[in-house]
Amino acid sequence: MPGLGTSFGRGGATTNQQDLANSDCIVIMGSNMAENHPVGFQWVMEARERGAEVIHVDPRFTRTSAVATRHVGIRAGSDIVFLGGIVNYILTNEKWFDDYVRRYTNAPVIVHEEFVDAEDNGGLFSGWDSDRRKYDVTTWQYAGVEVHGAAGQREQGFKGSHVKGHAAHGAHGGGMSSGNPPERDETLQHPRCIFQILKRHYARYTAEVVAETCGCSVAEFEAVAETLCRNSGRDRTSAFAYAVGWTQHTVGVQYIRTASIVQLLLGNIGRPGGGIMALRGHASIQGSTDIPTLYDILPGYLEMPHTERYDGLDDYIDRSSAERGWWGNAGSYMVSLLKAWWGSAATPDNDFAFGYLPRIDDDHSVYWTVEQMLAGTVKGYIIAGENPAVGSANGKAQRLALAKLDWLVVRDLVEIESASFWSDGPEIESGELRTEEIATEVFFLPAASHVEKEGSFTNTQRLLQWHFKAVEPKEDCRSELWFYYHLGRKIRERLAGSTDPRDRPILDLTWEYPTSGVLQEPSAEAVLAEINGSDSDGKPLGSYKELKPDGSTSCGCWIYCGVYTDGVNQAARRKPRWEQAPVAPEWGWAWPANRRLIYNRASADPNGKPWSERKRYVWWDGRKKKWIGDDVPDFDEQKPPDYTPDGDAKGPDAISGSHPFIMQADGLGWIYVPQGLEDGPLPTHYEPHESPFRNRLYEQQSNPARQTTDLAEDPYSPPGSPVYPYVVTTYRLTEHHTAGGMTRFLDYLAELQPAMFVEVHPGLARERDLRHGDWATIVSPRAAIEARVLVTERMRPLHVDGRTVHQVGLPYHWGTRGRTTGDAANDLAHMALDSNVHIQEVKALTCDIRPGRRPRGAALPKFVRDLRERAGAR
Amino acid sequence: MTTASYYGRNIVKQPVWKSEIPLYFWTGGIAGASAVLHGLARLRGNEALAKRALFVGAVADVASPLLLVKDLGRPERFLNMFRMFKVTSPMSVGSWILLASGGASSTAAALELLGILAPVRRAAEIVSFAAGPPLATYTGALVANTSIPVWSEARDQLPWLFGASATATAGAAAAVVTPVQFAGPARRAAVAGAVAEGLVMREMRRRLGFVGEVYDQGAAGRHARIARACTTLGAGLLALAGRRPAPAKTGGLLMLGGGLALRFAVFRAGFQSARDPRYTVVPQKERLRARESG
Amino acid sequence: MSTASYGAEAKPRVGFFTDTTVCIGCKACEVACKEWNLIPSGGLEWTGESYDNTSQLDANTWRHVAFIEQPKPLRVDADGADPPDGQPEPLRWLMESDVCKHCTHAGCLDACPTGALFRTEFGTVVVQEDVCNGCGYCVPACPFGVIDRRDLPRSPQDAPLALPLLGTKEDGRVWKCTLCYDRLKGGHEPACAKACPTDSIQFGELDELRERAQKRLAKLEGEGWNGARLYGDDPGDGVGGFGAFFLLLDEPEVYGLPPDPVVPTRHLARLWRTTALAAAGLLAGVALAFAGGAE
Ligand SMILES: Nc1nc2c(c(=O)[nH]1)N[C@H]1C(S)=C(S)[C@@H](COP(=O)(O)OP(=O)(O)OC[C@H]3O[C@@H](n4cnc5c(=O)[nH]c(N)nc54)[C@H](O)[C@@H]3O)O[C@H]1N2
Ligand SMILES: Nc1nc2c(c(=O)[nH]1)N[C@H]1C(S)=C(S)[C@@H](COP(=O)(O)OP(=O)(O)OC[C@H]3O[C@@H](n4cnc5c(=O)[nH]c(N)nc54)[C@H](O)[C@@H]3O)O[C@H]1N2
Ligand code: SF4
Ligand code: SF4
Ligand code: SF4
Ligand code: SF4
Ligand code: SF4
Ligand SMILES: [Mo]
User: Fold this and answer.
1) A261 near A87, Cβ under 8 Å?
2) Could you tell me the distance, in angstroms and rounded to a whole number, from the CA of residue A726 to the centre of ligand 1?
3) Could you say which of C27, C35, C41 has the minimum Cβ distance to residue A735?
4) Which residue of A327, A672, B222, B254 has the lowest C-beta tally within 10 Å?
5) Is A631 in a helix, a strand, or coil?
6) Are A324 and A651 in contact (CB under 8 A)?
7) Residues B128-176: tens digit of each pLDDT
8) How far B229 CA lies from chain C's nearest CA (Å)?
9) Binding-site residues, ligand 1, Cβ < 6 A
10) How far is CA B175 from the centre of its chain?
């Protein structure tokens, strides 16, 4: 998650859900935690019971709002104004944590003299290239320094990766090459120092502007800002919790950045009860970015080699690793990974088989791939654990794309819409597709569920927890591990004896895993051991610090190194919390190095003393000469607080003893991000791609760097179009899971929410004469869907630009199959994407809503087309 | 009157019983009161009336358990009714009474027909005579001992109401099947029962207050009106023209219908008062207020 | 109620304290109950009644989560400022997980003619499914409308009946919360309480729960929670106190609960007297009819 990655150095949540119980104030924004993380939410309730404020800022009044101490309703897509307003409030009322800001952040750093802020340039930063629709980031740099933030850099050269859903891969911190140290002004007075730039950037984000843009009242906003500041400082800490209510926007990453700035100014990062809790999605979605299912990074966030860019391994390492900070050791991580994959075939002479790695030549991400299917260039597709026909933006484009394939393999627990689109998809009903004309050959392979196999989940807080098999998979159901291992085995058998050099990467793979049982199930623990890594004589490694660049160690994912310490499966530890230390270090295993709360060096002051007794966590023990405390110190244990690196120090040694953010080249929290982001060093308010409003702060309406498609299947409504006057947002219900494959097919869950519905305020119901319990048709430039009408005061109307806006709320769990069926909200959504992580903007769209059911058959596309033409949508 | 409720949903459950139950209340009543009629007729040497009352009662007594069994969710488990005797359960007590009464009256009737074993018959007659009054009245206790507002709030009247109606219907039944010259006591019992029924009904409505309004509404209302009409008309006929066969038969049949309608009125009223939460909430609130202020 | 009959085997009475102020309406309790007790699905009717689509406790829903949207503030500030600074019109969303109350004086149990309903050694009220004959008397006897008859028609797959002529249903018995009798016997806490992420459902020994509830109420009153009250904790109430009692934020009837439940059998003695009198009255009446002559 580049928002966190560029700010602090690691792309993961800075804290854990249990620690929320220590907060004095929790701001839940862009998340409906009670409904979507109900188990983790118990610690929020614990905090509330201890007297903490729980603030929920959300367009809707949800089950989270119901138990919060305060709910503030805002317009979907306006968060940067709200958070920027808080930044402004902190600065104008001098509420920032001065010592923390001066010593632990880059506030004093002076920026390049040619840098022009968006404030002075109609919403564009200096360096905008309108033809390439990209920024040239030279002028964003620190004065006299070249920084390369690792997040954005890997994507320069082509459009970059689209990662569906959850907030993309955990991009890591910035490196720094030449000419350090950067110029600083410890007085924070220099007009070009980051602190002053920040002040100017948010000066216009006043309480009044917040109220006018977000639709809440000035009093509501000020109450939140005041409460947050009152509960931050030496003695008190506040936390933020967010999820996809923030990420699924064309400026999603910058939402998170704004929160990061707030938390750095208030000194809430790396301290108990503080931090930013990024609540993730699927059971192991953090794991699927740590050991990525993504095409453009390697395990442990190592950069995926590009076709044109590298001569050899050394060159790759030079470019992808920083001189200072922990990324200085990227070479050790990479070589160990190559050894894990190609074992003895990876030798110093052949660059440790670096040449075996596939190279990326272009974007190969989900939405891009869908475009390629529609264009007919992608001919075969394997869907495993996903239901794009329901879960991905613009369902129609998704299904039309699948219908263009030659072959499609779907591995799932049940026959989902993505496997049945050819027989019962909406396009069949509307006549846009005809079954007999669809050439796609569909193979459905039943998958074993999590209770039918063992393995680890890496949850939202980087915690690996092992789960055991409860029952044998039924009939033809097979685990992922079984499928990919035996697929690989069969391919290798086919290629055996081949002399074709292009087959070597496959034939040389280390592919020996013990199997057991009638099904020949591969051992998941053996895979974990390989990921953990071992030394030259096969002894399991204890920590990534032991990794070497000389090929004497192997490790499948450097950040997971230590999960198999002493040959023991650390992820399987289950000692109850009441039988161990407060942070429960013996429950499961967290990366990195079993640290539960990262950057925890910041819980002590520059001299290594706790900021306060109440908030002590990790501190420097002068006698023992080491860092000690409740958690594993996220710092070089021996490095004293007063350590100052000499000029040519490299890697970790180049980090000062008082700089907590060890993954950053300078060890500092980045308020301002000179490089690593596609759309600016400071968060700036842009309207959603589709919005009924003009941007009241800048001429620039929407994020200039956002990605849009030119697909005929993906038209957009023009800003402020009266044809689509309402903001529509989509979300989850506790009772269902995402695209519904795991819930719509189950009686016990289906009966709890047995129909697709739309939530509207009585005022909107009157405006459009919708009757409670009846049907309504919701229409966007892409599609029209129908839903039962739930009229509720919880959809509070807002007052924006002096007029009342109604928001339309849609759960997105329904599709054509299962015990409960209904239209899919995603049919309404467009494919405009965030510029950094390329998430679809499904949280803020525009629509119209009308009473009654939608047209059937051919009348449906016509109905949609007529409105679209009226709106002049393209 | 509007009271807070959960989406207007009922608080207490409506009974799960079907129309077999009110039917049984009716047959049970006839059986119980007939046994008494039969017994006294025997004592007073009115053999014509005694025989007929015995047969009527026996038929009703035999019909009753069949109706009950049919209504069980698990009819094959009817015998479980006799696993125990439980005073806290009018249904348990009633089952034993019905067993006694039914067994006795049917035995007596059979022996009467065959004209054998007179002493056994006499013993059976005594048992059924003793079981008769409780059989005719316990059904009132059965419904009153529930949380159904219009039933439980009428706990002081329902046994009387059912008893009166039982007398009326048993008398009427006897009056229908007995030659008029022997049917005097039956007619008088019928008319007396009808009068008593009317009085108790009025008293019950008075005590019930607004909850009683269900007797004016919907199915309960319809049945109550039919009951009143038939019973009054029937009783009138019996009283004024009961010495002539035709009016006696018509009057008797009318009263039997009236008695049946009454049971359905009470039955339906129970459902209606359960369905609307107001009938549960308002009296309870008043009770609370009374307690707090007193 | 008493577990006295169990003698040495009697256990301390257990129950639930359901604290609605921490309920997040996740329905985990409802689902856990169904999973553990293998209860049939209740059907797929969308009610439009907030987020509640199972509507009430019945034969197929033994835990039910109620949802109530109200134009009232959740808390009233110490200074009575309501709504608190700058909030729009007040709004709160109450959630309450309802369950069988396991009454001290249980109407259902008293009414049961077969003894299918019984008092366990834990002081809870349980139906023996192999004894219940579906007479349905317990259903209207319950002051809370909890226990209910399950009417499952027979399907061809069902096993043949003992007495074909009589049997009409696959299942015509009554069902309700057993307080997980099987789990209690195994020394486990009930499934619903186990699943509840926020401890809104607290399982334990009743006496201890009652004390805890008093403390809790005091705290909430201090914090100005609007309408906080205990419901069913008083052994002096009409059912002798609930085994499963609640902390509510509004009048009971708002949640679909009776404001002053009374076990029917409380009036039974008097009722039997009335019945006896009525029986005597009947006898007297008929006797009088003969007074006018035997023919
Ligand atoms: N029961 C259940 N749990 C789940 C899931 C599920 O499907 N069901 N899904 C899992 C997955 S994959 C994920 S990613 C997480 C997602 O967890 P969440 O992010 O909590 O899920 P959502 O409900 O999509 O969105 C959260 C909230 O964002 C609000 N919102 C929409 N637009 C905006 C905005 O512009 N600003 C702000 N501040 N809020 C906005 C919505 O009203 C909604 O209440 O949940 C996980 N947990
Ligand atoms: N409108 C709108 N759209 C959204 C979102 C939104 O908030 N609004 N949220 C987005 C987010 S955050 C997400 S994560 C996506 C989710 O969207 P998808 O991932 O497309 O939908 P899921 O239903 O989570 O698909 C997971 C599938 O995996 C199957 N499955 C479960 N276990 C296994 C297994 O072990 N092996 C295999 N092979 N299959 C398994 C399940 O049955 C299910 O069908 O939706 C995204 N789309
Ligand atoms: S579903 Fe699993 S991951 Fe989600 S809240 Fe429940 S327990 Fe946690
Ligand atoms: S609540 Fe009803 S069902 Fe439960 S014990 Fe009390 S009377 Fe019986
Ligand atoms: S239905 Fe079953 S449990 Fe209920 S009273 Fe009758 S026998 Fe007892
Ligand atoms: S105690 Fe057991 S049976 Fe009762 S509601 Fe909870 S889970 Fe269901
Ligand atoms: S599980 Fe707990 S929190 Fe969830 S609905 Fe039930 S009682 Fe409420
Ligand atoms: Mo997600």
Assistant:
1) yes
2) 20
3) C27
4) B222
5) coil
6) yes
7) 999 999 999 999 999 999 999 999 999 999 999 999 999 999 999 999 9
8) 22
9) A 29-32, 36-37, 57-60, 62, 76-77, 79, 165-166, 243-245, 279, 281-282, 729, 731-732, 734, 736-738, 843-844
10) 18
Q: Give me ligand 3 centre to Cα A574, in Å.
A: 17
User: Does residue B231 sit in helix, strand or coil?
Assistant: helix
Report the DSSP beta bridge partners of residue A478.
Answer: A447
The whole-angstrom distance between residue A459's C-alpha and the CA centroid of its chain comes to 13
Whole-number pLDDT of residue A153 = 40
Contact A37 CB / ligand 3 (< 6 Å): yes
Do the beta carbons of residue A817 and residue A417 sit within 8 Å?
A: yes
pLDDT level of residue A481 (50, 70, 90 thresholds): very high
From chain A, the residues in CB contact with C28 under 8 A are 38
Count of positions (residues) in chain C: 295
ipTM of the complex in this document: 0.94
Can you say how many angstroms the Cα of residue A83 is from the centroid of all Cα atoms in its chain? 19
- The Cα of B113 is separated from the nearest Cα of chain C by a number of Å equal to 22
Strands (E), chain C: 14-19, 63-70, 92-99, 117-119, 125-127, 148-149, 152-153, 169-171, 174-175, 201-205, 229-231, 244-248
CB neighbour list of residue A357: distance below 8 Å, 6 or more residues apart: A298, A304, A305, A338, A505
The DSSP letter of residue C199 is -
Partners of C247 in the β-ladder: C19, C230
Looking from the CA of residue A282, the nearest atom of ligand 2 is 14
B59 close contact with C: CB closer than 8 A? no
**Which atom of ligand 1 is the closest one to the Cα of A35?**
1
SS3 of A604, please?
strand
Minimum CA distance residue for ligand 6 atom 3: C177
Tell me, yes or no, if C34 comes closer than 8 A to chain A by beta carbon: yes
Ion ligand 8 — residues with CB < 5 Å: A 165-166, 281
pLDDT digits 0-9 by tens, A212-257: 999 999 999 999 999 999 999 999 999 999 999 999 999 999 999 9
Q: Determine contact: B244 vs chain C, CB below 8 A.
A: no
Distance CA A334, CA A549 (A): 8
Is the distance from the beta carbon of residue C247 to the nearest atom of ligand 7 less than 6 Å? no
Tokens of C97: 């997980």
The tokens 């230390």 sit on which residue?
A581
Q: How far apart are CA A602 and CA A635, in angstroms?
A: 10
- Nearest chain A residue to C39, by CA: A748
Q: Given pLDDT bands bounded at 50, 70 and 90, which one contains residue A171?
A: very low
| Whole-number Cα distances in Å, A270 to A54, A274, A595, A615, A617 | 20, 7, 11, 11, 9
Whether pTM > 0.90 for this model: the answer is: yes
| Nearest CA distance, C109 vs chain B (angstrom) | 9
Strands A302-303 and A803-805: unpaired
* Chain C touching partners, 3 or more CB pairs below 8 A: A, B
Rounded to whole angstroms, how far apart are CA atoms A844 and A255? 14
| Residues C112-115: contacts with CB under 8 Å, at least 24 apart | C112/B86, C112/B89, C112/C137, C112/C138, C113/B81, C113/B84, C113/B86, C113/B89, C113/B91, C113/B92, C113/B95, C113/C137, C114/B77, C114/B80, C114/B81, C114/B83, C114/B84, C114/B92, C115/B83, C115/B84, C115/B86
CA A225 to chain C, closest CA, distance in angstroms equals 13
Please list the ranges in chain B whose pLDDT falls under 50. none
Give burial (CB, 10 Å; 0-12/13-18/19+) of C114. buried
DSSP assignment letter at A727: E
User: What is the 8-class DSSP label of residue A558?
Assistant: G
Q: Minimal CA–CA distance to A21: which of A53, A46, A39?
A: A46
Q: Scan residues 23-42 of A and list those with Cβ closer than 8 Å to C.
A: 34-35, 38-39, 41-42
